[in-house]
Amino acid sequence: MYTLAEDSHKSLIDSLKDRGIIDDDDVYETMLQVDRGKYIQEKPYVDTPVYISHGVTISSPHMHALSLKRLMDVLKPGSRAIDVGSGSGYITVCMAIRTKVLENKDSFVIGLERVKDVANFSIENIKRDKPELLHLDNFKIIHKNIYQVSEQEKEELGLFDAIHVGASASELPQILVDLLAENGKLIIPLDEGYTQVLYEITKHNGQIIKDRLFDVCFVTLKKN
Ligand code: SAH
Questions:
Q1: Nearest CA to ligand 1 atom 16
Q2: Is 222 in the pocket of ligand 1 (CB under 6 A)?
Q3: Could you tell me if residue 85 is left (phi over 0), alpha (psi between -120 and 50 degrees) or otherwise beta?
Q4: Which CATH architecture does the domain made up of 62-214 adopt?
Q5: What φ, ψ does residue 82 adopt, rounded to 5°?
Q6: What pairs with residue 198 in β-bridges?
């Protein structure tokens, strides 16, 4: 018998482990360091998405865990990572912890968020949890719609080893394929009929390989 409502961050992460959702020590260690209670006030330690504002939610802890697990091999000290639709900032900060942005100046982590108020909300969350990140040149929260990244901005961003998308797209956006580095990995939910499916997309020798994972439920990746 599992309890779904926990009363502390550690008990939430331990319950994900007990339920077999976290079966990877690196995911466990990373998520343990990012207290969900700093990113959402209401029911932070329950395994459920929670409404933020502007029609967006912080994803459920089990979804964060499953996505992070897929990205662990491309998130290392020195990796370049982008969280598209960064929302609360939870996954962006997990990426920063895992790539050790504080110690490793080659690491580069960006959260890209379409709604200005939500981007500001994530900055407040990070101020509460890990304010030191906000003073770095290699960590940024950017208010921007991914579909509106110009050619020049694309050049400036460079290529990413790890791309996480926290909202579901009608089709794979070309911009994300372009931003993916050789041997990099992109995790993105894509609409399929009435459902959404999480995809793992990798680039090897310039070729794109798409792996269909499992059904999910995310908010929409908005075109404008
Ligand atoms: N991983 C985040 C998910 C937040 S919900 C978390 O757990 O907090 C998805 C986010 O994607 C929303 O904040 C929404 O505003 C943002 N979003 C939607 N379309 C976008 C787009 N085209 N470009 C950037 N962000 C977008």
A1: 85
A2: yes
A3: left
A4: 3-Layer(aba) Sandwich (3.40)
A5: -135, 135
A6: 189
Nearest alpha-carbon partner for 23 in 12, 10, 13 = 13
Dihedral class, residue 192 (left if φ above 0, else alpha if ψ from -120 to 50, else beta): beta
Whether the pLDDT of residue 6 is over 90: the answer is: no
Each domain of the chain, given as residue ranges in start order, spans: 62-214
pTM more than 0.95: yes
Res. 7 pLDDT band, cuts 50 70 90: confident
pLDDT digits (tens, 9 = 90+) for 155-198: 999 999 999 999 999 999 999 999 999 999 999 999 999 999 99
For ligand 1, is residue 164 a contact (CB within 6 Å)?
A: no
Instruction: State the Cα–Cα distance between residues 164 and 67, nearest whole angstrom.
Output: 8
Q: Would you please indicate which residues are annotated as catalytic (active-site) residues?
A: 59
